[in-house]
Design brief:
The chain starts with a strand and ends in a 48-residue tail after the last helix. The relative contact order is 0.14. It has 2 helices and 5 strands; from the N terminus they run βββββαα. Helix content is about 15%, strand content about 15%.
């Protein structure tokens, strides 16, 4: 079990990707064999954050490092069609969301328009 550096959720190690500095460059360590301190993140852009990686790696992380890691984690062929669940949502792009149900919530702020009761005066 490992903790994701971005969202801080504890997950099984095979579901996470290791990121490590190889010299001055931040790289994805898919084989989990590179030396040095590594950070584990979910393979999604939301979990690859500057603050999370800097905290886990104990080194400064630049926005360019984050962009490079996100591009390395993204699928090479985005238009591949992939597998879909019965609802038509791609499941291979969000491995942590398999079997999850969509929950809709009410908007927090009520929009005002000219048809409100106050405007009819």
């Amino acid at each position: 079990m490992r903790t994701c550096a971005g969202c801080r959720v504890i997950a099984a190690q095979p579901t996470l990707v290791r990121v490590v500095f190889e010299g001055p460059r931040l790289v994805v360590d898919r084989a989990r064999r590179l030396p040095g301190r590594g950070a584990y993140v979910h393979p999604s852009a939301a979990c690859v954050t500057i603050a999370g990686l800097a905290r886990s790696l104990r080194r400064s992380v630049t926005p360019d490092d984050v962009k490079r890691v996100v591009s390395d984690l993204s699928p090479e062929n985005d238009n591949s069609g992939g597998t879909s669940d019965p609802g038509g949502n791609p499941t291979d792009l969000n491995p942590g969301l398999q079997g999850a149900k969509t929950v809709e919530t009410r908007p927090r702020i009520k929009a005002k328009d000219d048809r409100s009761e106050d405007a009819r005066v």
